[in-house]
Model the fold of this input.
Amino acid sequence: MRDVAIVGIGQTPVGELWEKSLRHLGYDAVRAAMEDAGIETAEALYVGNMLSGELNGQEHVATLIADFTGLRGLEAAKVEAACASGAAAMRVGVLAVASGMVETVIVAGVEKMTDTLPAETTAGLALAADQDYEAAEGATFVALNAMIMRRYMHEYGVDKADFAAFPIIAHENALGNPNAMFHLRLTPERYAKAAPIAPPINIMDSSPICDGAAAVVLMPYERAKEFGRGRRLVRVAASVSATDTLAVHDRRNPLWLEAAYVSSHKAYALAGLTPNDIDFFELHDAFSIMAALSLEASGFAPRGKALELAGSGALTLEGRLPINTMGGLKARGHPVGATGVYQIVEAVQQLRGDAGANQLGHAHIAMTQNIGGSGATIITHILRGEE
Amino acid sequence: MRDVAIVGIGQTPVGELWEKSLRHLGYDAVRAAMEDAGIETAEALYVGNMLSGELNGQEHVATLIADFTGLRGLEAAKVEAACASGAAAMRVGVLAVASGMVETVIVAGVEKMTDTLPAETTAGLALAADQDYEAAEGATFVALNAMIMRRYMHEYGVDKADFAAFPIIAHENALGNPNAMFHLRLTPERYAKAAPIAPPINIMDSSPICDGAAAVVLMPYERAKEFGRGRRLVRVAASVSATDTLAVHDRRNPLWLEAAYVSSHKAYALAGLTPNDIDFFELHDAFSIMAALSLEASGFAPRGKALELAGSGALTLEGRLPINTMGGLKARGHPVGATGVYQIVEAVQQLRGDAGANQLGHAHIAMTQNIGGSGATIITHILRGEE
Done:
């Protein structure tokens, strides 16, 4: 098993990018990552993408992007795990480099969601759920999350207003990220007045439909050290994927993300760390409720106490455990198959000291967590920057 | 880098399996492979599948199958590379075991193509081609292959009748495979009278739309030796994926499968072999023309001479280089994302001496080749059975 380093990062702005097709988005992110790494070619390209078939009428998207990016010939495959597709592609990239079979790997995440009508995109997102036993009953993805959120409020006796801290932090952090989709400050008053989507979820509890692509370049750590380029090296300290039931109703407790618990705690063990050692956490706030459940299952808050943690100020850029330092899914945006790679890219920005206005004072150990479906696939990465 | 062994295989019959849903197909193949291997659980499940989103309204299919198969909790991801999705999933499984990060991996391929109207399925298959520059011009997948076949006939001065040897061999071999879709002998006369689909391609040049699933269990070779169970061990001697332009018109020569050349010759080098050492070859006869091009690019026939080789009898079960020993895509059937795994499963049957009526006298080194799109992604595996 070889240690794996991240030596290049690239990303497109996130938004409604109507002037860019799927292949152009992939090109922009991959080329930026290659330039950042200072490489001319690579041996493999793994692409995280969920909906190219449904929304863009295109499968075989990894080979398409390899071809369009001038990387013709190299190994290519698409990796899909619903909204965790980006981290799933990262996981395959890590396996490839660790195996000793591949030296230089590009991992990209790309999604183009705004060329279709909102109803079509919503139907596409529902493909992450159990079609026969959830979607067939009319449960959209938002509806499933709304039911979980309502149950959480009932079970732990919290108010809807207590969730506001998550989108407020996300929007605050996005102000310093030029690639974020939204640059608007959110207040508790504005959150309270936000339009409902599927009560109790309102528009501010829900990440946006958008386009975007991100990419990283991986190589063996020992080779990366010689490769140099004067930047702080980032090492993959742990890469763990775990699953749960696809359907929420099959779980013993819908408020407990077992796959987040398993993947984060295996990751801690592999990296020789505890939650206390994590300097910041890029978590999957597709909905505010998922941010809360992720913090609890990953060992950062007791059950039912994540909102208290969020309200305490501990999760801001100045807090003890900053989350979603570049805006998270809510405010940077959530181009589904790309999100897991954006999380890695942003963590590397912090670990390198390249996070601009949002740079953390102490950023040596990062954790990222990407969630597919309503918690059915959860992938945790721990990254370690050089001191 | 650890050597990888195949310790279990499973498959469903191929056909129009209307009584089985996608998850049931996956269950049947995965459970059969686990039983064959004698394992109760695994650490990862990689699923090759192309069209679950388009044809079955379900993404997130790897986690679905993990859940439904009672493997809840393990790592799971879908791998897609059009019709090469099965071998692409196998490639990820090999990387995982070789990396030292995962001990026991299940690789499955599953596809359910007959629940939709033929026009919908045809439109789905076209997602493997370049949507903006091929499919948008009305070029279906059959049409693209028909143009390549016509060019081949023109360039090398061969007759359409000369292609008959490929489907005749496939159908002959399928007679001895209880899991094959078709059990009917094909004659040159019947081939000559077969209904045209996209001339010069007729119905006997074209693999069928069907359902099916196959699975294998992988583990480190050193561990597999102790695992035993009295069967001949099969080792993965090479696993190589290569790509070409997605669109056929972008290639310097549409009659040359560069990705087959690259992946097969890299595989020979990794395994320390030449084409002469290959005992049998499971090739990708989605269309007769692809069988010819695959043989030429992989070094088994000079350019333009594959039909001569096929006509010579060398490719039958008794010949020098048997191909598609259990019926190939044409007669076993081509459930697209599952095909690459079927090829591996059938190669293992031969290498173990478990191929029943179709058992080859000398079967120690097998090659499988799975093609995505019109040659855009080509993945070659070489497997070595114990002497």
Notes: Chain A touches chain B through 66 residues (CB under 8 Å). The longest helix of chain A spans residues 336-352. The mean pLDDT of chain A is 96.
